[in-house]
Amino acid sequence: MDAIILAAGLSERMGRNKLLLPFGESTILNCVIEKAKPFADRIIVVTGHESNLIEASIKDDGIIFAFNENYKKGQKGSVLRGIKESIDDFFIIPGDVPMIACEDICNTIALLKNASAARCFFKDIPAHPVAFKKENREKLLSYPGPIKNYLDEIGFSRHQGTIGSAFDADTSIRYESLLTGNPDSSLL
Questions:
Q1: Domain residue ranges in the chain
Q2: What architecture is domain 2-179?
Q3: What confidence category does residue 127 fall into, taking pLDDT thresholds of 50, 70 and 90?
Q4: What is the pTM of this model?
Q5: What are the φ and ψ backbone dihedral angles of 40, each rounded to 5 degrees?
Q6: Which helix (DSSP H) or strand (DSSP E) does residue 82 occupy?
Q7: Which DSSP category does 47 fall into?
């Protein structure tokens, strides 16, 4: 199983690189990487904006870095860049969800036993991770629309996850809420 962690964005709503902000004893991005490790044979971190700072912040020699030169065009390009590096079944997590629970990842991956794709939800909010069997790789790489539409077309299994599966650090207010350890769901 490969983990694709998205770390290429501009952090425009935050106004600074949110992935490098402190969280616990590490950074937001490193917390996400640590959560993914038990479930992945390979960790692929897709970089773009401030890629040199992102790579320098990661203290793990086993990480595979994939640079998305078109990171300014949006998240789909980063997803596709990560998929290009994948060689197995894979799951995708944005690098800004440090409170994602291990159970969110475990339960999503478990759904792949009986489905081609799976997604975690928090209440009715699409959340993370999103997981795919490798048979989807080439189809995803050539799919013209959003990944959400691909999922709707092929059908997928879903489960209810924790608030951490949906609560990202997109703004200063959300980041402060994450630091409390009990994020405010009204901010979703």
A1: 2-179
A2: Alpha-Beta Complex (3.90)
A3: very high
A4: 0.96
A5: -130, 140
A6: helix 75-85
A7: E
